[in-house]
Amino acid sequence: MKRIYLLRHFKSSREGSGGDFDRPLASRGERAGADIAAWLADNKIAPDLVLCSAALRAKETLALILPALGESRILIERGLYLISAEALVARLRRLDDEARSVMAIAHNPGLGELARHWGDASDQFPTGALSGFGFRIERWRDLAAAQGELLCRIRPRELE
Question: I need a surface site. Which of 42, 48, 87, 103 has the fewest CB within 10 A?
Fold first, then answer.
């Protein structure tokens, strides 16, 4: 079984010198990061690979949860910035099959659309939302959007 965890970056500030791409996390986002990191550690969720958007708020999100991830391999990719659901599936299909689990830290609307498509029936995919899915496949290239089984769904407000 392959596992995919979709994590939307934590709440960002409207400030930043370089526009949307360079917006940092807000203090509320930093608090949510501590809660999600604790939840990941408590539930022993440590993916083999983390794909992270190169946007500042995504990288800061990664930094907050990194202690909970153990030995996860990290790839920072500019292409994940505002990636569509279809493009993210295409990226996941190119993963090395040795990775059994992956976390994508990115943005809406792509993450929310993909989470809903794979079976997260929630109407909203707010900042800090985490949804995990299991797929009964051996190779990433066999990833089909309709095969997902919802494993977890966490929102920061649920952990406050």
Answer: 42
CA–CA gap between residue 31 and residue 28 (Å, rounded): 5
pLDDT digits (tens, 9 = 90+) for 94-127: 999 999 999 999 999 999 999 999 988 888 899 9
Instruction: Say what the pTM is.
Output: 0.95
Half-sphere exposure of 99 (CA within 13 A, CB side): 24
**Do residues 27 and 11 make contact, with C-beta atoms less than 8 angstroms apart?**
no
| Residues 48/70, Cβ–Cβ less than 8 Å | no
Query: Helices 56-65 and 27-42: crossing angle, nearest 10°?
Result: 40
Q: How many domains does the chain have?
A: 1
Q: What is the pLDDT of residues 122-157, one digit of tens each?
A: 888 999 999 999 999 999 999 975 578 999 999 999
Q: What CATH number does residue 78 fall under? A: 3.40.50.1240
